[in-house]
Every structure is written in structure tokens, then in C-alpha cells.
Amino acid sequence: MTFKTVKKYTLPIAIIVGIIGYRWFGVLNFLTPYLIFTMLFFTFSKIDFSALRPSWLHLWLILIQLVLSITVFYLLRTFDVVVAQGVMICVFCPTATAAAVITQKLRGNVEFIASYTLYINIVMAVFIPLIYPVVRQGGAAISFFSLFIRIFSMIFPLLICPFLLAFALRFFPKIHGLVVKNSGLAFYIWAFALVIVIAKISKYFIEYKSIDSSVIMLLVGSLFVCLLQFFVGKIVGKPYNQLIAGGQSLGQKNTIFAIWLANNYFNPVVAVGAGAYIIWQTIFNSIQIYMVESKG
Prior knowledge:
With 296 residues, this protein is mainly α. The protein has 15 helices and no strands. The protein has helices at 3-8, 10-20, 22-25, 32-46, 56-76, 81-92, 99-105, 110-135, 144-168, 173-181, 185-206, 213-237, 243-251, 255-265, 271-295. The protein is globular and about 55 Å long. The protein starts with a helix and ends with a helix.
């Protein structure tokens, strides 16, 4: 198997390794924050900071994400509240920190999605505590300020700190040049982090005791909103020449955050949707990368 072939199938390989070796790789979960930080540092070191400015497309995508999350909750809550919460989290969950890495691999606009990732994470740190009292329906009661601080404390070290460090590195041209030269490592760091995340999720599903109608609906619902968000993001982004970045902005989610939120503030069953979402989005991204790599 050639290196080019390995590159083409990196994400599917990560899924398979994570599933098969879930007992071993799952214990490495403590490494995930460090891997994400390093991955983002390499990615941010290469971007043009002058291009990180808001646009109308940023605003449209944010509005779509906010409105769609509320819409799916109210459409589904009459059928099953747990399913409604699980699918809603798959929508309002902010863009994944790895989205810039995948966008770069797909030859999209890294600056656009890097800026959108910053904006949507900050917006959701405010939006989620605002709507939580309305949608929790049995979850743990918590004040707006407490939930905001907890969410922001997750965002700052993993997203904003590597951003600031990469910016500061510009004042040291030789070191910056060395980091930029090796920025391609970000994709493989993400692939290793993905193995760990898949292992953790696989352990959860393999050891899960009850497969009822809610679980099945969450699996199907997360697949539907995954495809919907990638599709809508691409459609909205196309007129702005941001087909790839638009799709990744809406479709690729920070599912680690979603699982944390579901387990701590909703019914733990809600986390099934977020867990399944990472499988669906990784398969979708694998297909996209395969198509891009096949074109050469």
C-alpha cells in the first residue's frame, strides 16, 4: 500500500482501528485535548490572519444553525423529547476544531472556516445557556452564567489559545517557517485523535445495554441532520464561492463537546445522537477526501 493510498483512506482506517482497538485506544482519551491543541496550532500557523474577517455568509450560517436547532426540537418533541434533544444538539453543536484541517485537505478556504469556528463557538456559548431552561425538560437545573462559564472554559484553552500562540509565532520568522513547513502534520494528528474518539464512542455503543426506539430514532435522526447540514452549508456557501467551507462550517461538529453537554445536562441517552454523528460525519468526510485525492 503506497503513501498516497494511505492518505486517501486515512479517515476510514482511523474508524476501523478505533472500533477494533476500542479497549486499548479508549484509555488514551486524556491525550485528546493536547492533540486538538497541537493540531489547531499547526493549522492556524499557516492561515492569513488578515483574512479572518466577518462576512454575510458567516451571519447566514449562524442564523441557519440557530433557527434549525430550535425548529428540529419543536418538530420532534411531540414524538419523543429525548430524540428532540439529541437531534437538536447535533445541530446547535458548534463547528469542530478539526474542520479547518479537513477543509484544507479538501482544498477549501481555511481562513473562512477558521473564523467561522471562532464566531460560532462564542455565539453558542451564549445561545445554549439561553435556551437550556426551555429545552432541558428534566435535565439538571443550572443558571445561565454557570453554564456559560463552563462552556467558555472548554472553548478558550482548545480554540483561542492555539490561535493566539500561532499569531504570536509570527514574530519569530524562523520558528514560524519551520512550523508552517510541517503544518501537514495537523491532518495526521487529527486522525490519531479520531482513533481515540472513535474508540471511546465504540466502547459506549458496544457496552450499551438498551437499544430501544429512542436510540434507533437518534441514530437515524443524527444521520439525517448530518447530511442536511452539509448539503445546506454547501448550497448557501456556493454563491459566495465557499462550497467546501460552507458545508464543513455547518456539517462538521464538535461532537466531543456535544457528548459532554448531553451527559452532563440532559438524559445520557441523548449522547447517542452525538456519538453516532461523529461516525456519519467521518464517513462523509472520508468520501469527500477520497474524491479530492482521486482527482489528484
